[in-house]
Specification:
The complex is a heterodimer of chains A (about 270) and B (about 475). Chain A is an alpha+beta fold. In chain A, about 45% of the residues lie in helices and about 20% in strands. Chain A is elongated. The chains are: A alpha+beta (about 270), B alpha+beta (about 475). At the A-B interface, strand 10 and helix 6 of A face helix 15, helix 16 and helix 17 of B. The structure holds copper (II) ion (CU). Copper (II) ion binds next to loops of chain A.
């Protein structure tokens, strides 16, 4: 029975190694491959941490199993050794984890800066948000500048409005301004690995470069009230030409005066 | 689908009602709540007698309950289902096989679970299908029918499928605000201003139809897709087209049910409400009143109930016709400082007097918002100052400076708001105003967010400032 516990604790590191080896190729960690440039770097960091954690887990479990095995196979006459109060040990288990944590935090600085620090944003997007995404209980309201104009923080005449659907160009860096009208929400696009809180009173620029045109799910990732689960929208990544055509269409629609319909119905 | 409706309409006398059981559903109430007005009638009027049904039974036989919806074919709801006719029928002791051919222009559904016979011996009977092949139209019936269908009998396969799926979606996405019966009083409604719409008046605010017309299907669809900005009504843009379509039909169904209930009660309220009867008791005997009611319920009420249904069908049908639609006769006047200026003059003019409610600067603070009003039904003063809508809720005139237009911000949306008013609310219709003048006002309204005095923004919109402020 004593040996059982040693084997028991040796069993789990084996499972962990197996899972970590198989998981990436089977896509167990993420909903899909990363589909934005930052996404690759974020996944890289994730895997780096995964390796560190796996090695640590395997190492400590192996040591635990070893200690149990030794205890189980030695005769019962031997006296136990108490490590309590050993300065040497304490220094080791403080310094080693601290070193690992400092290593992780230094390694991710670059990526974090690229995500958060405006001066590190790609030049082409830094002062050129394509849309304002306003979170609100429980929907996403979008405001685009009038085609050919710049997006202002304050609504301008000619701005275009839509809800729960954002059109952005694919294959080039894009930036949106994230805001909230009421409580905290979070702008989360799982397949792009983009997640950013929307904070009342702040205008938070969020940039990403979507690699492939297509439709991406946008979710709220901050429990924002009873209707939180309803806060779903879609991001449509399209060629820059496709986006500008969309905006032209939206502008036409928004200026609809109902008179064209009259002509159409007369012709019938 | 179209055809299915025509066929069933033609055979209305035979079919009349289609029972649409939604089995195995536990997510809903087991009955539609009756309105307060129904409950203010005396018991005999609510429940009827052997002689004739009262309000509750009249409603239930025509609309059913959430678990067992009924399709009153008279009403202009797209119930769903595919029209077909029987090609061949063969039955042994244990099994009945049947082959259908779709009516012209109809495709058979991919899955089907029931068939309802419309003509022939078995008209009216509804039988479940245990097997279904969409390609050949062959099916196995769940039992051997008492009346043998013959070749040529008309039937509806999966009748009411649209309504049923609308019900399921409605219960999931809408009922917590709008209530299972569409009474606008779901569990989350108490936290909201304005309150979720109570459909039972059959009145909707943001329509593209004339002031006297009902809401069109397209109007409801727009509200569902884009939500109502500035209120708690969310956008359901991500739903599929056929899901939205089914919900719209279910909302229409609930609206017609509620409106029908109101109209039935109107027939009885003046003589047989609790208060009316207690007044009458001063000079009449209770047993006489009940006897009179019973003979009314027996002799006249059933016919009235049918006529009311016809009226309802007519007004709801006409809302989707071109005649009901608001059509500006002139194109939008080009936006300019002069046009806005003219709009502002009209806004302030004695004849239109928008400022009376919306205030001189459009801040929604006109004199009407501080006056006390009487409830037109009870004739008592409301506890709070300001205007009230037909749902008896306080109705604040919109602050027009905020640039949030609940019914949409397209020029045509604002044109409709002014032309038809906002139905059910206190925003009146200005349908006699020349269309050109309405466009001037629209231009003014659209500029109000940016400037209180027309004429200053034209320059600004050309050269936005670099800082973004
Ligand atoms: Cu949220």
């Amino acid at each position: 029975m004593k040996k059982f516990w040693a084997l028991f604790f040796w069993f789990w590191p084996l499972v962990a190694i197996l899972v970590c080896a198989v998981a990436p190729s089977r896509g167990w960690w993420f909903p899909s491959a990363p589909l934005s440039t930052l996404g690759h770097q974020i996944d890289g960091l994730f895997y780096l941490i995964l390796i560190i954690v796996t090695v640590t887990f395997v190492g400590t479990q192996a040591a635990l199993g070893y200690a149990l095995w030794k205890g189980a196979t030695k005769g019962s006459t031997q006296k136990a050794w108490f490590s309590h109060g050993s300065h040497k040990l304490e220094i080791i288990w403080t310094i080693v984890p601290a070193f690992i944590l400092v290593f992780i935090s230094l390694t991710q600085l670059d990526v974090l800066a690229e995500i958060r620090v405006i001066s590190k944003f790609p030049d082409s997007v830094r002062n050129a948000p394509v849309a304002e995404v306003m979170a609100r209980q429980f929907e996403w309201r979008i405001r685009y500048p009038k085609p050919g104009q710049q997006l202002m923080n304050v609504p301008q005449p000619g701005d275009l409005y839509f809800v729960n659907e954002v059109h952005v160009p694919a294959a080039i860096p894009t930036m949106i301004n994230l805001r909230t009208q009421d409580v905290q929400h979070a702008f989360f696009v799982p397949r792009l690995r983009v997640k950013q809180d929307a904070v009342p009173g702040l205008i938070i620029p969020v940039w990403f470069e979507i690699e492939k045109a297509g439709e991406y799910e946008l979710l709220c990732a901050e429990l924002c009230g009873w209707g939180h689960y309803k806060m779903k929208a879609r991001i449509i990544a399209d060629s820059p030409k496709g986006v500008s055509e969309y905006l032209t269409r939206l502008e036409q629609e928004q200026n609809e005066d109902g008179v064209a319909e009259v002509d159409a119905s007369k012709e019938q | 689908m179209e055809t299915s409706i025509k066929i069933t309409l033609k055979n209305q006398v035979l079919l009349g009602l289609l029972a649409l059981s939604v089995s195995g559903c536990s997510d809903g109430d087991s009955s539609f709540a009756y309105s307060q007005r129904t409950q203010s009638l005396i018991k005999e009027a609510q429940n009827g007698s052997e002689g004739g049904p009262g309000v509750k039974q009249t409603l239930d036989t025509r609309f059913g309950n959430p678990q067992q919806l009924k399709a009153w074919m008279k009403l202009p709801v797209e119930w769903g289902g595919s029209a077909a006719s029987v090609e061949s029928f063969a039955a042994s002791d244990t099994e009945a096989r049947i082959k259908f051919v779709a009516q012209e222009g109809v495709t058979l559904p991919a899955v089907a679970s029931s068939v309802q016979f419309v003509t022939g011996e078995g008209a009216g009977q509804s039988i479940a299908l245990t097997a279904w092949d969409e390609k050949t139209g062959e099916a196995v019936l769940a039992g051997v029918p008492d009346k043998t269908p013959v070749s040529g009998d008309l039937c509806v396969i999966d009748g009411g499928s649209t309504l049923k799926s609308g019900r399921v979606l409605y219960m999931r996405h809408c009922s917590h605000c709008h209530g299972a019966a569409g009474d606008g009083n779901g569990p989350t409604a108490q936290y909201m201003i304005p309150k979720p719409r109570d459909y039972r008046h059959g009145v909707f605010k943001f329509t593209s139809t004339n002031d006297q017309s009902k809401v069109s299907r397209n109007d409801l669809l727009r509200v569902l897709k884009y939500g109502i900005p500035g209120t708690y009504m969310p956008s359901f843009l991500l739903m599929k087209e056929d899901e939205l379509h089914a919900i719209v039909e279910y909302v229409r169904f609930l609206s017609m049910r509620g409106e029908y209930e109101r109209r039935l009660v109107n027939e009885l309220a003046s003589d047989y409400s609790e208060t009316a009867v207690s007044d009458r008791l001063a000079s009449e005997k209770a047993s006489d009143i009940v006897e009179e009611l019973q003979s009314f319920l027996k002799d006249e009420f059933p016919a009235t109930a049918e006529t009311l249904g016809d009226d309802l069908a007519e007004i709801w049908t006409s809302a989707d016709t071109e005649d009901a639609k608001i059509l500006p006769t002139v194109a939008r006047v080009e936006d300019s400082a002069e046009s806005r200026q003219r709009g502002r003059e009209l806004y302030l003019s004695k004849t239109l007097n928008c400022a009376d409610c919306h205030g001189i600067d459009g801040a929604g603070n006109g004199p009407q918002t501080v006056a006390f009003e009487k409830n037109p039904v009870t004739n008592e003063l409301y506890p709070e100052a300001g205007l009230h809508d037909v749902w008896d809720n306080p109705n604040q005139p919109r602050n027009l400076q905020r640039g949030i237009f609940r019914g949409g911000r397209r020029p045509i949306d604002l044109f409709c708001r002014i032309h038809a008013g906002i139905k059910g609310s206190r925003m009146p219709s200005f349908k006699n105003t020349p269309h050109e003048d309405i466009w001037h006002i629209v231009n003014y309204l659209l500029s109000l967010q940016f400037e209180s005095d027309p004429g200053t923004i034209a320059a600004k919109s050309v050269a936005p400032s670099e800082t973004g402020e």
